[in-house]
């Protein structure tokens, strides 16, 4: 199964790194999962490798969160299917930088 294009909204700092003015669209061959979306982003934009997830463990970075369809998917399994609305391109996959501090 191939998606029509998954819309991804990255934090502004990462958009600046890749020269994107707004959301990007990535084509996913196969199941649309967090892992397949991030794999495709990292393949297209190698300068983002290691920013969203650890390069060795491939686990999400602690201060990065993933959202779709108003749900926090940060702790979902990376290979679990994303919501159908995301796979169809109707809703974006959001990558959000969490704010830490006290």
Give an overview of the whole structure:
It is a single chain. The protein is of the alpha+beta class. It has a single domain (6-97), classed as Beta-grasp domain (Ubiquitin-like (UB roll), Roll), CATH 3.10.20. It has 3 helices and 5 strands. A 5-stranded mixed β-sheet has the order 2-1-5-3-4, with helices on one face. The radius of gyration is 13 Å and the shape is globular. The mean pLDDT is 92.
Which characteristics define this entry?
Ubiquitin-like (UB roll); 3 helices; five-stranded mixed β-sheet; 5 strands; 102 residues; alpha+beta
- Assigned CATH architecture: Roll
The amount of helix comes to 10-25%
Structural class: alpha+beta
Strand content: 15-25%
The whole-number mean of residue pLDDT values reads: 92
For the secondary structure, the number of strands is: 5
Number of domains: 1
- What overall geometry do the principal axes of the alpha carbons give? globular
Strand order of the largest sheet: 2-1-5-3-4
Distance from N terminus to C terminus (CA atoms, Å) equals: 45 Å
